[in-house]
Write a structure and sequence with these properties.
Layout: H1 2-65, H2 69-82, H3 91-105, H4 138-148, H5 152-165, H6 169-176, H7 180-183, E1 188-189, H8 191-194, H9 199-205, E2 211-212, E3 218-219, H10 224-233, H11 235-242, E4 246-257, E5 260-270, E6 275-285, H12 288-304, E7 314-321, H13 324-332, E8 338-344, E9 348-349, H14 351-355, H15 360-372
Parallel strand pairs: 2-8, 3-9, 6-7, 7-8
Antiparallel strand pairs: 1-8, 4-5, 5-6
Helix pairs in contact: 1-3, 2-3, 3-4, 4-5, 4-6, 10-11
Length: about 375
């Protein structure tokens, strides 16, 4: 019996050792992959720094030689001959390197070569704020350069968005084809007055004006309920339009306020801001009364739902039309942090056209009849 017990103990020790060994192998693999990722990021950053400095050279030399496309072909040929193992010196890629430099160096710098890049190809202090441009792959940069040429602020906006949201090249290209830059952070709000820094700035950044509801299909004469129903039916598209960090909590959320029941149109939680977001949708023009209603809901959420670690609830009012001055005056009267935006809805089906379409019930009846036949 003792011998059998001893054998069992040895088996357990071997199994335990095998598990520890396997865990160690797994940990080594994990650390190696992490180091690979860090190394690839560092290599990418160094490569883009080189492209930036070469872009500066090309900018200056093209000015000196006064050559057209022949200059890029000549430079491509000679660089490829001198560095035969490098595949980055095609005429097109050289042009993009020059555009890369010209986009982010800024027109106001009056580039002379030493102002932006020194002898060691180090960035001048004037470009310290733009270091994020070296954190995304060159393929992403080419897309940004093509869509934002001449607009450095817009380019930096999409660089930041790519890093924040880990956009693939395809997703980046999709957003570059929209007017996201022109709309983001543009709502009329009182966030900076009623929220501490940096929360006020962050809250402003999550807004858009106008919100784009073109993913909806509604008739020309739609009601407020039909709009809200359509938004709920397309909640995934709606969340994408609201932006990164929004989590849907509920629609028609019931609040018991004294002896009265109130219902919030839509309630969200923003993970980045760590706060509830009350969203009210109106199909008509903005009115002063909208601010009072939204503010009351926000106070109720702060009392009934907000936790100790949550930041103050913010409100978003999305209406069909608004006068910016009227909205600003209304917001100045409230100490609740809220913003007011309009929404766009251009994909409308004419009322008479919709009436000619078969209903779901008619389609199902026709299908059932065909199956029976």
């Amino acid at each position: 019996m003792r011998r059998e017990g001893g054998i069992e103990m040895v088996k357990q020790l071997i199994i335990q050792s095998d598990k520890q060994y396997a865990a160690w192998i797994g940990e080594v693999c994990k650390r190696f992959k992490q180091s690979q990722i860090k190394a690839s990021i560092k290599v990418n950053a160094e490569l883009l720094r080189f492209y930036f400095s070469l872009g500066c050279d090309l900018h200056i030399m093209k000015e000196q030689f006064g050559a057209g496309n022949e200059f890029y072909s000549m430079a491509s040929r000679d660089l490829s001959k001198a560095l035969p193992d490098v595949k980055s010196f095609s005429p097109t890629n050289l042009k993009y390197m020059q555009y890369f430099f010209e986009l982010y160096s800024g027109k106001s710098l009056n580039v002379s070569g030493q102002q932006v890049v020194d002898r060691d190809n180090n960035l001048n202090a004037q470009l310290v704020d733009y270091l994020q441009i070296f954190e995304i792959p060159w393929g992403h940069q080419i897309q940004i350069i093509g869509k934002c040429k001449g607009n450095m602020d817009k380019a930096l906006f999409f660089v930041r968005k790519t890093i924040e949201n880990n956009w693939s090249r395809a997703i980046l290209l999709n957003f570059l084809d929209t007017d996201l830059y022109e709309r983001e952070g543009k709502a009329v709000s009182n966030f900076k007055k009623n929220l501490p820094l940096p929360l006020g700035d962050l809250a402003q950044q999550i807004t858009k004006d106008p919100y784009n509801f073109n993913f909806l299909s509604l008739t020309e004469k739609y009601t407020e309920k039909e709009l809200k129903d359509a938004l709920m039916d397309n909640i995934q598209h709606f969340l994408l339009e609201l932006g990164n960090g929004f989590a849907f909590v509920g629609r028609e959320v019931r609040l018991q306020i004294g002896q009265t029941e109130k219902f919030i149109d839509m309630l969200f939680y923003n993970i980045k801001l760590h706060c509830y977001v009350v969203l009210e949708v109106k199909t008509d023009k903005f009115d002063f009364a909208n601010v009072g209603q939204l503010g009351g809901y926000m106070v109720a959420v702060n009392h009934q739902l907000k936790g100790e670690i949550d930041n103050p609830t913010i409100g978003l009012l999305v209406c069909k039309y608004k006068d910016n001055v009227e909205a600003q005056y209304a917001l100045e009267s409230s100490n609740q942090p809220m913003g007011v935006s309009a929404y766009e809805l251009s994909r409308l089906i004419p009322e008479n056209f919709k009436s000619t379409l078969p209903s779901i019930e008619e389609i199902e009846a026709e299908l059932n009849g065909t199956i029976k036949d």
